[in-house]
Structures are given as C-alpha cells and as structure tokens.
Amino acid sequence: MKVITIPYKPRPLWKDIIHPALDKYRFAVIVAHRRYGKTVGMINELSKSAIKNTLISPQFAYVAPFRNQAKMIAWNYLKYYTSAIPGRKVNESDLFIELPSKHKNAVGARIYIIGADKPDALRGTYWDGVVLDEYAQIKPELWGEVIRPALADRKGFAYFIGTPKGQNQFYEIYQRAQRSEEWFTCLYRADESGVLDEAELKSMMEDMTDIEIRQELYCDFTASASNVVIPIDLVTAAAHRLLQEKDVQGSPVILGVDVSRFGDDRTTIFKRQGLWVDVPLVYKGLDTMDTAARVINAINKNKADMTFIDSGAMGAGVIDRIRQLGYSNISEVNFGGKALAEHRYENIRAEMYFKMLEWLKSGGAIPDMPELKSELSIVEYKFSKHGKIILQPKEEIKEKIGKSPDLADGLALTFARPVYPRLKPGDPGYGRKMMCNTDYSIF
Questions:
Q1: With contact defined as beta carbons under 8 Å apart, do 49 and 22 qualify?
Q2: Residue 371: band (very low, low, confident or very high) from pLDDT cuts 50, 70, 90
Q3: Between 64 and which of 70, 217, 282, 376 could a Cys-Cys bridge form, CB atoms 3.0 to 4.6 Å apart?
Q4: What percent of the chain shows pLDDT beyond 70?
Q5: How distant, in Å, are the alpha carbons of 74, 148, 256 from that of 261?
C-alpha cells in the first residue's frame, strides 16, 4: 500500500489529546486561545474523516459565521493540506474539495467551506461531519433546525470551536457539553498550551486590555460579563423555570412589539403575563398594513390589557393604523425617549432592559429559545457623559452577532411602563378599563 504523507504536523495537544478524543466522540466543544491552531487542526480532522469514510458520497462542512470569513480563514488551509492526496479535485466557485471515492461510479468525499450567512447551502441535504467555528456569531437556529437533523441519517459528527466572547450561546453549549458523557470538551489557555512562547505572549499582553487578555488568551467566558446587563446564567435559569398559577393569575396581559426596520430584521410580538412569557410571534418582510393586522390579531386573541410598540421607522405607521381602527390600549415607545427614572437611565431602552433584569431575578420564566437567550445575554451597558446608564448601540450588537436583537427588544418592550394589575370580582374599582400607569415610577 502506498503511503501518502500530508504536510500536517499536529501540535502535542492535538496529537495526544484532541485528535484521539475526536475518534471516540461524535460531538465536541473545543475552547482555545487565539493562535492555538483550531482551524488547522479541524481542517485536518475533516480531511482524515473524509478519507476514512466508507459510505457513498460523504459530505463534510467547515462553517464560519460568514462565507467570506470562512473562505479567508479555512479555504487555503484545506487546499494546502489536501494537496498531496492523488486524484483530489478543487472547486473554486463552490468552495469544496473532492477526494477520490471508495465506491465505483460514486461522487467522491467532499469537504465544503460554508458561511452561516448562507444557510440554504446547508439545508435539505445530509452531512457526515460539520465543524462550526465562532459559534457565538452563528444564528443558533442553524444548529437545531438545519445541521443537527442533517447529521441524523448517517450519524454524522459536529465539533464546535472558538474563543470566548462573553457568556453567550457558545458558552451555553460548552456548559451543556460538560454535563454530558456523550460530548468531549477541552479548554486551553495561552499560558498553558505551549503554543506561544513566553516572550511573544508578554509582547501581546502589552498591546491588549485586561478584558482582551482574559478573553482572548485566558479563555475567560466572564471577561466581559462585568458590563453585560443580563448574565447568561440568569437567562439559562429563566428558560428552565416551572411556574405556578399564582405567578400569572391576576396579572395584566402585556404585549411588546418590535417592528422590523429593513433587510433581515424581524417583527416580533411578545406576550407577558406576570412571571410568564409565551413563545413570540416572529415575522419577516411584512409591510405596515400586514404588521398592523398581525398586532391587532394578537391583541384580540390574547385580550391584551396594554400593547407597547416600538415607534421607530415602520413602527409609527403601524401605530397610526391600529389607532385608526379604534384600538386605544396601545402605547408607542421611542427607544431613545426619556426614561421614567431619568436620573438613572439615559433613555427608556436602558430602563426597559434593567427592569427586565429585575424581573428575571424575581423569578421570570422565558421560552427555551437559543436565539432569545443569546440576544438577552449579549447586550452590554456603560455610563454616558451625564453619568447615566446607556446600552450598547443596536448597530454594534448587529455587527457582533450578525443580526439585530429583535427578540430581546420585543421582550424588553413589555417593561416600557408599569401596567395596573388585573382586578378580581369584588375588588374596589373592578370593571374599570385597564390602562398604562404612566404616572407611577418604581424607582
């Protein structure tokens, strides 16, 4: 048998621990510092798996948040490390390598380079193995709705790799993996992996902030948590809470509506009653009239006592249309408008998020939705020049996670203003119209 030598020399931790572990485990989460060699190691793991696979026409994928990013990070590595394999074919337009098939007349084993911003490239097919890089920036539904089902037919593997970027969905899946005997996990810091020599490490630290050092080099998921409004641990606990009737009974039904602005933004409608939040309604591509119709339907169906609607961009037209049709129990919310506690918050957006934080601390329960949990736990705050709390701009959040935090904003809107609790028969004032209590401040 002819021996083929590829130009890959795995680092000790890859050779002695990670590669052997991946031979045993179908699922894995690998947390490692910058310049650890995560991409190179995984590209070669995919190549090995493709060569050894005995099924007909195997398919593998390396997935990064964006296609251009995936191409820049991994494509040249894939071509280089497979260059010694006879019969290899390179498809530059569709970014895949095809290795010789073990089956006569069958398509060879293919390894694709794919961006999570093009989910259709992963949908509707099977996968024998997938690597998800920088999972914190990938839409979480891609895993549960697209990739995981596509692995089922052929019992394919999935490996998550990345460096911490706060307590988000990557942190959550790492925590979940640590609790499971079916998952392999590892975490390697720059000061213990041996990849970077002491002089280079010291030089890097001189040019980095303390948070950057803790996060990028020491793999500390809590590095940026000091200025995160809602910690991921609190969000995770809220998604697993079981409520009792008393937690909801007698509380007003409040809707929060975040109206989409453009592009991939979504219109979200949340229903909250007491400590309970229902699974939201999520829409894309609606015009003003369609959005108003969906909101009215939600108001009628849920007998909402108050509906808070984001008045930005398309929101103003939606509000006007709903009022035109005779609905008065709605309140427009300008995210940049004044907070009730204006001595503490720069605007109502910051106030709503911190009210939501207190609600979660008091026992609030949310739907177990990865995307909602990720959005809630990624919003950061700082202090304005006036010494008031202000949140990270939505544009920065969108740049970080690849989408607008429409789910988090929709839920936050249910905290825009206090709403009177429901009155029971026999209570003084029973039967009066429910309304938003704009004069009352909880601070």
A1: no
A2: confident
A3: 70
A4: 92
A5: 34, 31, 16
**CATH code (residue 310):** 3.30.420.240
Q: Which of 171, 193, 227 is the last residue of a domain?
A: 227
Identify whether 337 is part of a domain.
yes
State pTM to two decimals: 0.64
- The token duo for 197 is 């020599």
Q: Which of 331, 368, 355, 341 is nearest to 240 (CA)?
A: 368
202 and 304: one domain? no
Q: Number of C-alpha atoms within 13 angstroms, CB side, residue 340?
A: 16
Total count of domains within the chain:
2
Residue 346 within a domain: yes
- Say yes or no: 186 and 292 in one domain: no
Mark whether 71 and 181 lie in a shared domain.
yes
Same domain (yes/no): 74, 157 = yes
- Pick left, alpha or beta for residue 162 (phi over 0 → left; psi -120 to 50 → alpha; otherwise beta): left
- Spatial separation of the C-alpha atoms in residues 411 and 347, rounded to whole Å: 17
Cβ-contact 413, 257 below 8 angstroms? yes
313: left (phi over 0), alpha (psi -120 to 50) or beta: left
For 183, the token pair is: 């998952």
Taking Cα atoms as reference points, which of 6, 131, 18 lies closest to residue 79?
Answer: 6
Model confidence band, residue 440 (pLDDT cutoffs 50, 70, 90): very low
Tell me which amino acid residue 405 is. Answer: P
Give residue 17's domain range: 12-227
Please count the CA atoms within 13 angstroms of the CA of 86 that sit on its side-chain side: 3
Burial tier of 335 (Cβ tally within 10 Å: 0-12, 13-18, 19+): buried
